[in-house]
Amino acid sequence: MTYFVLFLGLCFVLGSLAVASIPSPYYGVVGLVLTSVAGCGWLVSLGVSFMSLVLFMVYLGGMLVVFVSSVSLAADPF
């Protein structure tokens, strides 16, 4: 169980670094999803599964809005 929690922490840090360092919005969303899954998995390992589910739903909604807006801005030629 300790290795699983350490693995989730590592995924959380690597996902955060991926979001911060990747300029493309398409690959940045992959980092956001990895970070949210790892963070919610970390919360599940602590025993707060309902809070994890609520945070995951909120993060997914926010990520979809940010992804769609950034893709639409990147596709606009002006």
TrEMBL record:
<keyword id="KW-1278">Translocase</keyword>
<feature type="transmembrane region" description="Helical">
    <location>
        <begin position="30"/>
        <end position="48"/>
    </location>
</feature>
<keyword id="KW-0472">Membrane</keyword>
<feature type="signal peptide">
    <location>
        <begin position="1"/>
        <end position="18"/>
    </location>
</feature>
<keyword id="KW-0812">Transmembrane</keyword>
<keyword id="KW-0679">Respiratory chain</keyword>
<keyword id="KW-0813">Transport</keyword>
<dbReference type="InterPro" id="IPR001457">
    <property type="entry name" value="NADH_UbQ/plastoQ_OxRdtase_su6"/>
</dbReference>
<dbReference type="InterPro" id="IPR050269">
    <property type="entry name" value="ComplexI_Subunit6"/>
</dbReference>
<keyword id="KW-0830">Ubiquinone</keyword>
<dbReference type="GO" id="GO:0031966">
    <property type="term" value="C:mitochondrial membrane"/>
</dbReference>
<keyword id="KW-0520">NAD</keyword>
<keyword id="KW-0732">Signal</keyword>
<keyword id="KW-1133">Transmembrane helix</keyword>
<feature type="transmembrane region" description="Helical">
    <location>
        <begin position="53"/>
        <end position="75"/>
    </location>
</feature>
<dbReference type="InterPro" id="IPR042106">
    <property type="entry name" value="Nuo/plastoQ_OxRdtase_6_NuoJ"/>
</dbReference>
<dbReference type="Pfam" id="PF00499">
    <property type="entry name" value="Oxidored_q3"/>
</dbReference>
<keyword id="KW-0496">Mitochondrion</keyword>
<comment type="similarity">
    <text>Belongs to the complex I subunit 6 family.</text>
</comment>
<protein>
    <recommendedName>
        <fullName>NADH-ubiquinone oxidoreductase chain 6</fullName>
        <ecNumber>7.1.1.2</ecNumber>
    </recommendedName>
</protein>
<keyword id="KW-0249">Electron transport</keyword>
<comment type="function">
    <text>Core subunit of the mitochondrial membrane respiratory chain NADH dehydrogenase (Complex I) that is believed to belong to the minimal assembly required for catalysis. Complex I functions in the transfer of electrons from NADH to the respiratory chain. The immediate electron acceptor for the enzyme is believed to be ubiquinone.</text>
</comment>
<dbReference type="GO" id="GO:0008137">
    <property type="term" value="F:NADH dehydrogenase (ubiquinone) activity"/>
</dbReference>
